[in-house]
Amino acid sequence: MTDTDWSEQGLCRTADPDDLFVEGAAQNRAKALCGGCEVRTECLAYALDQRIEHGIWGGMTERERRALLRRRPTVTSWRRLLETARAEHDRTRTGGAVAIAGSKAS
What we know:
4 helices
């Protein structure tokens, strides 16, 4: 699997690229497209790891990505960091659902 295999599953794959490389208020419309995308995390990680300077990637503007990179200068792999965070979130969320279901059965 290559670093960009995920892009074939992105909601933006059929969007006009000009709609994703916008400025000002139009950025909020472009970011909204990312909201329900299954590969949002992979997209954001790719943009951060590759230091992509322009466009909306993973629901973040270039300004938001630059700020994140400045806040976390020691991160060497955003892909690894975000995948780990997502796995932990999923594990916690799944565990919470089981606990809630278990408490109802009691």
